[in-house]
Amino acid sequence: MHAAQLVSYEKDFQIRQVDDPTVTDPHDVIVRVGAAGFCRTDIHLWLGQFDAMQKGAGVDLPFTCGHETAGWVAEVGSGVTHVAVGNAVLLHPLSTCGYCRACRDGDDMHCTAGVFPGVLAPGGFAEYVKTGARAVLPIPEGLEPVDVAPLGDAGLTAYRAVKKALPLAYPGSSTVILGAGGLGHIGIQALRALSQTEIIVVDRSQAALDHATGWGADRAVLAQDDGSHIAEVMELTGGTGAQVVIDYVGEGGAQNDAVGMLAANGVDLLVGYGGTLNVEILTQALFPETSFVGNICGTYNELAELVALARRGAVKLETTTFPLERVNDALHSLNEGRLVGRGVLVPSAS
Amino acid sequence: MHAAQLVSYEKDFQIRQVDDPTVTDPHDVIVRVGAAGFCRTDIHLWLGQFDAMQKGAGVDLPFTCGHETAGWVAEVGSGVTHVAVGNAVLLHPLSTCGYCRACRDGDDMHCTAGVFPGVLAPGGFAEYVKTGARAVLPIPEGLEPVDVAPLGDAGLTAYRAVKKALPLAYPGSSTVILGAGGLGHIGIQALRALSQTEIIVVDRSQAALDHATGWGADRAVLAQDDGSHIAEVMELTGGTGAQVVIDYVGEGGAQNDAVGMLAANGVDLLVGYGGTLNVEILTQALFPETSFVGNICGTYNELAELVALARRGAVKLETTTFPLERVNDALHSLNEGRLVGRGVLVPSAS
Amino acid sequence: MHAAQLVSYEKDFQIRQVDDPTVTDPHDVIVRVGAAGFCRTDIHLWLGQFDAMQKGAGVDLPFTCGHETAGWVAEVGSGVTHVAVGNAVLLHPLSTCGYCRACRDGDDMHCTAGVFPGVLAPGGFAEYVKTGARAVLPIPEGLEPVDVAPLGDAGLTAYRAVKKALPLAYPGSSTVILGAGGLGHIGIQALRALSQTEIIVVDRSQAALDHATGWGADRAVLAQDDGSHIAEVMELTGGTGAQVVIDYVGEGGAQNDAVGMLAANGVDLLVGYGGTLNVEILTQALFPETSFVGNICGTYNELAELVALARRGAVKLETTTFPLERVNDALHSLNEGRLVGRGVLVPSAS
Amino acid sequence: MHAAQLVSYEKDFQIRQVDDPTVTDPHDVIVRVGAAGFCRTDIHLWLGQFDAMQKGAGVDLPFTCGHETAGWVAEVGSGVTHVAVGNAVLLHPLSTCGYCRACRDGDDMHCTAGVFPGVLAPGGFAEYVKTGARAVLPIPEGLEPVDVAPLGDAGLTAYRAVKKALPLAYPGSSTVILGAGGLGHIGIQALRALSQTEIIVVDRSQAALDHATGWGADRAVLAQDDGSHIAEVMELTGGTGAQVVIDYVGEGGAQNDAVGMLAANGVDLLVGYGGTLNVEILTQALFPETSFVGNICGTYNELAELVALARRGAVKLETTTFPLERVNDALHSLNEGRLVGRGVLVPSAS
After folding, report:
1. H or E element at residue B201
2. Cα–Cα–Cα angle for C151, C157, C158, nearest 5°?
3. Closest to C315 measured CA to CA, from C200, C184, C219
């Protein structure tokens, strides 16, 4: 089959002929790729930032990226019972064992024996991809692979944070969303669909903010170099601060904005990354009794919930599609900030 | 192999030669039985009370009971990765699929494709039993199959209710346990190990109550035909009622005692069965804002927790062992109320 | 002042001259009534169904009903700090002590020293009413007393049940609402505003169902004498049943419909009353692990949340207003099923 | 009356004659002091570290410290109903309003109108102290003020963190407690009384560790300058890390130890202070999905629970008592590390 492979860091991806994946375990599922999201993490991979992690896991170049995949089941192992050949499916990013305590708690991301196609195993920038049965989610009628592929990682990550926010986002509360980009635009829609909290969106880009009210935000605040957006958020909340901050940025200093915006008992949901969080324990964690909560992707059931939101039209993805062989267009347009919405690769066969 | 089979309702079990179970699915696990608890549900099966349910599931006599089984792994299917031949294991009662929403939530008992050995498939009153990989829990060093078999159902059922009670069983609260029998003696120990709630045990048998304080109860109340034990519980709680009632009886009228013993916002945890619960909605559910909460066995992770409690010595089973061929002694002594603790069958080979 | 008083059961209310309430405790708040909801509970009072409860509390006829009151603060005791004379306020139904464990947990309805104007103390069918400081909720700008009075009891009761439903009403779930009347029309709107669960409304009245989709319901099912609506709900949920039922009816047999409509781990939220709930423990509570959860009004903070929903336009009340002296018109039109929406009494002075 | 006052920072406290406190608000309660804990926060006050905060609140020297007070009710305002003159009481550190959203949620520490005797108002190092009705907790029979005074702050703070830990401290889990000092010795006992988690205590003092197993710890690990105690904790947990860390230290580098000791989904409960927490977001918060949770004292109901634990003998305080006039002995022995257990001042009159 054809695959778009990373052959050398910071060089263009190459379309190469590789072996088709085959069923070697009873839980294996081979999926014919219908759509593969191009994510910022693929840029990190392309830059070689995951090189050490991949080498440590025995993974080397050339490598097939792609961890936001949807398509149709092409072949299943003898232990697979909940999907059949031909089913349209969306892939949860992690293929999990189903036996460890984490799996048995529904905490898929912390499976002690998980396999991560597109990061630590061959991914979805190809005609076919292999994953495990527990990662395969049937897509309901009315949705196509190309509609949902980016929900698998970007969407799921945005949604999990929203879900953790909901108990605090009661009517009359305020919720700050830092970052109205790829994750933010899903997070805002999901939060709007599931709460009546006052949604305050903060971003450095006025263009992004202009979209945010259309996604359901109540207020848009332009982030400033002088940090004055923090005071603006405090004023918008009547001086009390927000009950929750969802930080989809996590770098460039934004990661330390939340402590200035939170009400007592506030929760700072960490999603974006790149930076270091610095917390003065007495004044920033103890007195206000703040929680700082890490997030990584989400569970399979959360992905099913997100697909249900999409099916109801409550969450709509903004995407730009590229034929698989145009992978480098997706790469460069994302890398250079020219990409509108999420990029999605579509193999010719699909 | 030999199995103790129910050939005709209300007749003695017969030791019969049956085919050894074999691996037919990648998730199958064949366990050499080391110990099989004899449970009151086996009496219900023996009496034919599950006949319609079994017939509906295509199960017929002769039938091998036994749903509280522990032993050693004898053979595994190709999809089994977390246990190996020779491992000592305790069986969760339900063999689950790992693919449905319930399984993915850790809610094992509501698997939509579960198999129930000993009730709806051949069980543990035999030399070998077949179950699925997700039902097999490794036993830690220091515990033997015969020590833990009854934890698989009776223990797990008792523990799940305790676990639901804990958030309400804060220091200064009162918890009533109805029934100091097979489940109660585990429930009392577990509740004592995990809380400092005032434990008030109610039973019709003074002998059972005499044991209860040794298991950790603070107070013992003899149930009376005139219902005066309800007033006694109210008095012991200073007139407010208990925060929680765990009803391990569920029949003979006891099922309606809880409403008279509960404080505002109280929870009645239903575990024992046989009766019908009647609730006058306005005065017994709305005004006091009472919850009536059903329980059925428990999850695999809860079973692992219970085994951890046993390993710490925090929960000790009282058992009487019988060689498998003496199955009818176990039956009759339980049925006639002569059995001390839980009965456990041990195949000769073990 | 004038008050509309119940002088004799089942006889028309009388407009009588009574003493103005006065501040006798530091926590007292005297409210000039702007609007007083006429609730079905007032019919129960009128019929004398609460006679024994009232007598037990030393309350006798003539009596001033009215437990859904909004207005303006007229006078406050020396211990009142959060509201001032002239503030527009909505009254939580129960005046609470602030000292008992329930109050300290935010569990207002179970205050051990609560006072209940309109049921166990003079209520809001008058020009002035006395309550306690902790019952007084400031109304935000943009809302008037007449807009919110029925939120104090009917709305709060409907909302609390919705709030308990939310954790189970995840995207992809189904929620059944029994009863599209006074409580149901608020419950449906609140549930729609806070979830994307599939809302299935069941009612005996086609006219009520016709409104329900406008309030946000996805499906409307006509309740039938033969109980066939239960099968219809099962079919609408794809055979699994609903995750939650909110029963705003609670009598006439409807109270026993939920068990046939619930999925595994389902929750039956009891709100309506009049009937007795009968639960066959093994098959209706244990096997499906169902919970039956009582509800009574709600907390002060929940009332504040509901007012926030109203302020956002997410919950709109349908009301018919009557001058206070036309109280009997409200009574009879409600009693005879002619009332559209909630009835609200407005004193002439307001 | 006599009070031990801070007249000049870093100078000995002086016994001075000051006015008796008087009832000026309906909620005031005057308590005759029976015992006043001398806490490390009093050292911070003595050093002037809270000078800016106090000045900002209009508080100046000379000042009466003491925020861990117990005694007997001497006088009450007209709005106080739950205690009477002569009752033995323990004081919650914060006097709360009962009207704000936090109070109504039971979240006492975040009252928007709280008064903090001993820090921002005259405290308990005196014969009498004034507080508010909602801060006054009756002490059950069998306990004396001198037995419980330090529970009011040190105990409550230790307990609240334990309470947050409990849902994660399931049987089979591991919990690390950093610091076996004044808070740690209460935290360990409370955690032992309420869980069967494997308790691993880490401290720089072997003497402190020697006591820890007596309080209920399972393992004691000596903290080392080279950080090797982190690896030791990992080994004790079988390589997975602990489910929870309770950090009673919070400075000197210990505040950054938790991230190396936690399992996936782990929670770092921040209690001790002085340092800054630094979290590399991707690797220390996102990948392991860690939560960092601030804690400040606790709620009134939590204090009641802690007193219930003390009454059952499940938590025992180690104290050294000093007559009030020997306040400087308490100061210097604590400051120089010579104090055994918590210091408690007792006015002569008591």
Report:
1. strand B198-203
2. 85
3. C184
The pLDDT mean for chain C works out to: 96
For residue D140, give the amino acid letter.
P
Please name the residues in contact with B141: beta carbons below 8 A apart, sequence gap of 6 or more.
none
What tokens were used for A105? 């708690």
Task: List pLDDT tens digits, range B169-189.
Answer: 999 999 999 999 889 999 999
Distance from D306 to chain C by nearest Cα, in Å?
Answer: 14
Residue D122 pairs in a beta bridge with: none
Q: Least CB-CB distance to D81: which of C78, C97, C300?
A: C97
Shortest distance, CA A138 to any CA of chain B (angstroms):
11
Q: Do C171 and A195 touch (CB under 8 A)?
A: no
- Nearest CA to CA, how far is A85 from chain D (Å)? 33
In chain B, which residues have their Cβ closer than 8 Å to the Cβ of A108?
104
Q: Give me Rg for the CA atoms of chain D.
A: 20
**Contact between residue C234 and residue C165 where contact means Cβ atoms under 8 Å apart:** no
Between chain A and chain C, how many beta carbons pairs sit less than 8 Å apart? Answer: 43
Could you tell me how many residues make up chain D? 350
| Secondary-structure percent of chain A, ordered helix, strand, coil, rounded to 5 | 30, 25, 40
Q: Which of B194, B309, B312 should be substituted to probe chain D, the one whose Cβ sees the most D Cβ atoms within 10 Å?
A: B194
How many interchain CB pairs under 8 A, C with D? Answer: 63
Residue pair C63/C5 in contact (Cβ under 8 Å)? The answer is yes
Distance CA A109, CA D287 (A): 9
| Residue from A172, D127, D343 nearest C315 by CA | A172
> Per-residue pLDDT for B349 more than 80?
no
Output the six-digit token pair for D63. 């000042």
Q: Is the pLDDT of residue D350 over 80?
A: no
Taking the C-alpha atoms of residue B249 and residue B271, their distance in angstroms, rounded to an integer, is 7
Strand A174-178, strand A128-132: pairing = unpaired
Tell which of D90, D192, D196 to mutate to test the B interface (max B CBs under 10 Å). D196
Do residue A309 and residue C196 have CB atoms under 8 angstroms apart? yes
Residues of D in contact with C27 (CB under 8 A): 26, 79
Contact A294 D281 (CB under 8 A): yes
CB-based burial, C281-300: b 16+ in 10 Å, e otherwise: bbebbbbbbbbbbbbbbbbb
Instruction: Name all contacts of B11-19 with Cβ < 8 Å and 24+ positions apart.
Output: B12/B328, B12/B331, B13/B46, B13/B65, B13/B125, B13/B327, B13/B328, B13/B331, B14/B62, B15/B324, B15/B325, B15/B327, B16/B62, B18/B64, B18/B122, B18/B126
What are the backbone angles phi and psi of residue B6, rounded to the nearest 5°? Answer: -85, 115
CA–CA min distance A279, chain D (Å): 5
Q: Rounded to an integer, what is the distance from CA D4 to the centroid of its chain?
A: 21
Query: Under 8 Å CB-to-CB from B70, ≥6 apart: which residues?
Result: B33, B34, B35, B36, B88, B89, B90, B91, B139, B145, B146, B148, B149, B152
Its pTM stands at 0.97
Considering only CA atoms, which of A21, A23, A5 is closest in space to residue A13?
A: A5
- A9-14: average pLDDT: 97
Question: For residues C97 and D79, is the Cβ–Cβ distance under 8 A?
Answer: no
Which chains pack against A, by 3+ Cβ pairs within 8 A? B, C, D
How far is the alpha carbon of C104 from chain D, nearest alpha carbon, in Å? Answer: 5
Q: What is the ipTM of this complex?
A: 0.96
